[in-house]
Design the sequence.
């Protein structure tokens, strides 16, 4: 499809484009189109792997479908579909927002539901495995891009107290460079809300090529990023998947960090307490 045609198809609207191109689609692509057109609002919510499973096709077929429509990836297609199929009140936040709701109840309720769901799916053995990997690592490298970079900074702020050799940089190119310097004795901790960011996946690919162990914290345990992990720590969100911003998921990820921090401190014993006391002492000198 030519660039001009791609631009024109996107400008014409997602649903219109699917209907217009329907005769030119393959059998499997028509199955995707039929599913989406039957209920566009519901088709917005599943992640790429969930939708592929539901329709009975591969993720690669779904990717080819959205690219044929003129979109660079599934997430862009989903946002475009949501713009047409979902009202503005459902696109402001993770849950529908309207004038009858109390804002405090809405946001706190959503955050508490996410925390409860995450607590229910969090595997204690996975926490222990992540803890053991970090405890025996020569170096712990922490990665995150965009909103996940804020979560990565919080993780660095916590884990530097343990006495582990932790490293974290913000710039993407610097993160790639850091990944290129790892080895099989290193452990990487990667934060990604969707697990589909191409730059984050590129970092994970570089880490794997160096045989570095990877711990992934994500809401999509079946994403491309999660499949590259040595250990996955999932975060659950009972909200619309097309909202790319990690609102309540960010809070849950930070609680998972705290869980891992407590597990590390208990496991490492008195040595970790010494490092913690040293950190508190040097900070206390700067307070009046």
Sequence:
């Amino acid at each position: 499809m030519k660039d001009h045609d791609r631009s024109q198809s996107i400008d014409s609207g997602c649903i219109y484009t699917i209907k217009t191109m329907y005769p030119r689609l393959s059998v499997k692509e028509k199955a995707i189109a039929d599913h989406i057109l039957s209920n566009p609002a519901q088709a917005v919510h599943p992640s790429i792997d969930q939708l592929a499973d539901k329709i009975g096709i591969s993720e690669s077929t779904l990717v080819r479908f959205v690219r044929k429509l003129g979109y660079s990836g599934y997430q862009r297609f989903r946002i475009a579909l949501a713009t047409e199929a979902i009202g503005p009140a459902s696109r402001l936040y993770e849950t529908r927002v309207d004038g009858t709701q109390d804002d405090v109840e809405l946001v706190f309720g959503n955050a508490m539901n996410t925390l409860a769901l995450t607590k229910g799916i969090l595997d204690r053995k996975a926490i222990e495995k992540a803890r053991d990997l970090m405890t025996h690592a020569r170096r712990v490298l922490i990665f995150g891009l965009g909103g996940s970079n804020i979560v990565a900074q919080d993780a660095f702020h916590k884990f530097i107290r343990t006495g582990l050799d932790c490293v974290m940089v913000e710039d993407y190119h610097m993160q790639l460079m850091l990944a290129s310097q790892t080895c099989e004795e290193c452990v990487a901790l990667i934060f990604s809300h969707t697990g589909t960011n191409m730059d984050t996946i590129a970092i994970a690919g570089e880490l794997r090529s160096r045989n570095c162990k990877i711990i992934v914290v994500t809401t999509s345990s079946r994403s491309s990023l999660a499949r590259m992990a040595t250990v996955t720590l999932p975060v659950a969100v009972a909200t619309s998947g097309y909202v790319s911003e990690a609102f309540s998921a960010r809070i849950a990820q930070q609680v998972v960090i705290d869980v891992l921090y407590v597990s590390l401190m208990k496991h490492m014993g008195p040595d970790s307490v010494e490092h913690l006391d040293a950190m508190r002492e040097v900070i206390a000198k700067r307070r009046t």
